[in-house]
């Protein structure tokens, strides 16, 4: 690799980009003009916004006005304006411009059921936003309670049955289908809560007690960051990292389209590829160019948006400037982020035939990146080991922690975030290089899709093995079917529910699409599904490999649970699953949990999908993608991560032996051990002391992790001797399999 070539190409690419005046205007000039205009527009539009009053119809008895006058605090004013009492609306329901926010219209109270029905009709006809129904017994009950307070005797109303007491309470009628109705309900409820507070204060005063007796605490707040540079830093920590990554992605996407798909349209790509520069040098030069524009675009937009937001937020909420080092942290995080997004955008743009086609790829890329960017912003989320291992999300949380000034926590997980980000960058760059090394990607022709011709060509030109596109289609079809099946399946009885779910998942969701696609896209079922018998010695080796792998998975699963604790919802589902399994005979458990998944999942993932993705140059990529599909079909995140690791071992075993049958034996053995260990109880451990040496119940990490340590058996963990021996034998068997078997080339 020649750095001189990379530098020459970099100068060429940057010079070409600087000649595009429209792109320069959109990336550098427009942000300087757009965000100040947005700020001015916000203030101008704010002058025309006002709160509209809520229209309320009140159903009450004829004597309610007189009933409210006297010793009880009034709910309605006694004049003819028809409004709430002054002490209610002045503090709660008058807008800053002294406008009443509740417009009341009174209606004579009938039977409570009739009034509720009439209120419903008025709201459905949009005549009123909400309704208040006040039963005739309300003030009678209040007077009885008042008399009880005076005589220190329980009021008669407290002795009524709950149904009768409920009948005397006011009712607010509204609809959540209308936003104005929801706001009216909120205002009306606040008014009644204030009146309820006044009633309590009046009762206390009548008994000779101060009103503060009911609420003796006056909680004061003291913001220790008020006079520091971190005042209001939580706002900026939720705002700046998200904005930075979004602009890093969008700032990298459009230059990459012009550098890849644009060159195809201009006809200059062939000249570039025929130059002395290698494909790696071409990709790196384009990557540095896109990174440059991504960084400049992001920083300029951050400065403009930050300045505009500060002007707006400072006037509304008193939030101060971001911490002084915030810009430094953003700049440092922008470099690896821009590198990652630039490599992804170049790989996608190189596949596009035209600039128009390349723009279509922005939507799926955003759909993948946006959840990773917004997930850390959920309430209560903080930087920990589990989140630092998530690409993109770890960067957002790391930046948020640095902006908030928690440097100890940020430095603790900084190496993990950097390693994950750099690893993703390497993978993305490698993908972009592979795209440029593929002539079929760079010079593919645009096609007009015709369903009839496509089906005829598909059936006539079937190959012995599926294509990578067909393998990916199979994986996504399985995931889609599983998603919709989870929404649709509802069992009736416990045992029948579990059995039907397993049969549906294995036969209908996993096996059926594979059979259909095999018949449509492949001319050799034996080669497509890797059904060839392996060498006989690989079968016992696969069995021993699974026996040694299970203790390793239990240990790794415990580490996963520490990084990603089980939520209470999943804990409840695991408890329900464990109760279902207790009611199933053990032979049926072996069939449903071990044998059936071992056959169906191996045919699908290590058969069809792995065979379609497997090429001599991309075996590792085929293993990883197949394992990700395999892990994603499992129900819970923790279970999916462990299944993904097991899928890597199974995919390696299938490639090494050239058959799925060793993987089937491995899969059935691994799941069978889990079924057997479910039957291990504390009584068994006490009866057989030697068993406790190998298997025990250690102190749990937490209550939720204890219930999910091995998916079925709470708190079960292999002892240290079993773990050391199993891990050593596992490595030895891997080496033995590598020596005794030859890799199958395709």
Note down, in words, how this protein is organized.
The chain has 746 residues and is mostly helical. The protein has three domains: 3-38 and 230-379 and 421-442, no CATH class; 54-213, abc type-2 transporter like fold; 463-740, no CATH class. Helices cover 68% and strands 3% of the residues. It contains 33 helices and six strands. It has helices at residues 3-18, 21-46, 64-68, 86-92, 112-124, 137-151, 162-167, 179-206, 233-259, 261-266, 269-273, 279-317, 326-351, 355-360, 362-374, 385-388, 393-403, 407-437, 439-442, 451-460, 468-488, 494-521, 525-528, 538-563, 568-582, 586-613, 619-632, 637-657, 661-678, 682-687, 689-694, 703-707, 720-740, and strands at 54-60, 102-108, 130-133, 171-173, 695-696, 717-718. A four-stranded mixed sheet has the order 2-1-3-4, sandwiched between helices. It has a two-stranded antiparallel ribbon with strand order 5-6. The longest helix has 39 residues, at 279-317. It starts with a helix and ends in a 6-residue tail after the last helix.
């Amino acid at each position: 690799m020649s750095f001189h070539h990379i530098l020459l190409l970099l100068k060429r690419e940057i010079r070409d980009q600087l000649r595009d005046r429209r792109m320069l205007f959109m990336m550098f000039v427009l942000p300087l003009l757009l965000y100040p205009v947005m700020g001015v527009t916000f203030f101008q539009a704010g002058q025309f916004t006002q709160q509209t009053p809520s229209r309320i119809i009140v159903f009450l008895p004829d004597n309610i006005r007189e009933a409210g006058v006297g010793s009880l605090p009034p709910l309605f004013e006694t004049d003819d304006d028809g409004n709430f009492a002054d002490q209610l609306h002045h503090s709660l329901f008058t807008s800053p411009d002294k406008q009443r926010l509740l417009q009341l219209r009174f209606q004579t109270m009938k039977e409570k059921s009739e009034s509720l029905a009439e209120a419903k009709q008025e709201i459905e006809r949009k005549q009123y936003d909400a309704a208040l129904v006040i039963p005739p017994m309300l003030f009678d009950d209040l007077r009885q309670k008042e008399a009880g307070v005076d005589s220190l005797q329980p009021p008669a109303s407290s002795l009524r049955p709950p149904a009768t007491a409920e009948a005397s309470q006011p009712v607010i009628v509204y609809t959540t289908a209308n936003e104005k109705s929801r706001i009216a309900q909120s205002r009306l409820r606040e008014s009644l809560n204030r009146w309820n507070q006044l009633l309590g204060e009046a009762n206390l005063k009548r008994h000779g007690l101060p009103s503060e007796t009911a609420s003796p605490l006056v909680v004061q707040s003291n913001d220790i960051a008020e006079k520091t540079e971190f005042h209001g830093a939580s706002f900026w920590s939720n705002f700046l990292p998200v904005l930075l990554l979004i602009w890093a992605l969008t700032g990298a996407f459009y230059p990459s389209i012009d550098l890849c798909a644009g060159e195809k349209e201009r006809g200059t790509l062939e000249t570039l590829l025929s130059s002395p520069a290698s494909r790696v040098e071409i990709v790196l030069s384009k990557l540095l160019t896109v990174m440059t524009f991504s960084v400049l675009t992001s920083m300029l937009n951050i400065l403009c948006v930050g300045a505009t937001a500060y002007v707006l937020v400072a006037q509304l909420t008193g939030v101060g400037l971001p911490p002084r080092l915030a810009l430094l942290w953003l700049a440092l995080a922008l470099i690896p982020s821009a590198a990652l997004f630039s490599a992804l955008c170049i790989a996608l743009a190189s596949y596009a035939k035209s600039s128009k086609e390349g723009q279509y790829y922005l939507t799926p890329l955003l759909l993948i990146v946006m959840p990773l960017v917004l997930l850390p912003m959920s309430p209560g989320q903080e930087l920990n080991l589990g989140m630092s291992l998530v690409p993109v999300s770890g960067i957002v949380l790391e930046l948020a922690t640095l902006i908030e000034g928690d440097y100890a926590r940020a430095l603790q997980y900084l190496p993990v975030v950097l390693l994950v980000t750099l690893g993703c960058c390497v993978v993305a760059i490698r993908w972009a290089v592979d795209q440029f090394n593929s002539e079929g990607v760079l010079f593919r022709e645009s096609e007009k899709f015709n369903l009839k011709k496509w089906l005829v060509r598909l059936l006539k030109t079937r190959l012995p093995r599926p294509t990578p596109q067909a393998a990916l289609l199979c994986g996504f079809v399985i995931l889609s079917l599983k998603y919709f099946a989870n929404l649709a399946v509802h069992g009736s009885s416990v045992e029948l529910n579990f059995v039907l779910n397993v049969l549906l998942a294995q036969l209908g969701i996993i096996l059926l699409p594979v059979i259909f696609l095999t018949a449509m896209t492949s001319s050799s079922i034996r080669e497509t599904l890797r059904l060839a018998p392996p060498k006989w010695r690989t079968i016992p080796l696969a069995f021993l490999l699974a026996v040694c792998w299970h203790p390793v998975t239990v240990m790794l699963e415990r580490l996963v649970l520490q990084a990603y604790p089980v939520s209470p919802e999943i804990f409840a589902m695991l408890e329900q699953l464990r109760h279902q399994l207790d009611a199933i005979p053990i032979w049926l458990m072996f069939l449903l949990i071990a044998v059936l998944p071992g056959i169906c999942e191996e045919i699908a993932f290590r058969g069809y999908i792995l065979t379609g993705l497997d090429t001599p140059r991309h075996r590792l990529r085929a293993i990883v993608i197949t394992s990700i599909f395999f892990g994603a079909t499992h129900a819970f995140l923790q279970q999916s991560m462990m299944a993904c690791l097991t899928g890597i071992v199974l995919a390696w075993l299938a490639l090494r032996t050239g058959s799925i049958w060793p993987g089937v034996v491995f899969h059935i053995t691994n799941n069978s051990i889990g079924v057997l260990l479910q039957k291990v109880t504390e009584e068994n451990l006490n009866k057989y002391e030697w068993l406790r040496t190998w298997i025990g119940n250690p102190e749990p990490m937490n209550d939720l992790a204890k219930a999910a340590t091995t998916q079925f058996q709470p708190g079960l963990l292999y002892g240290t001797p079993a773990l050391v021996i199993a891990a050593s034998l596992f490595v030895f068997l891997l080496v033995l399999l590598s020596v005794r078997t030859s890799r199958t080339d395709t």
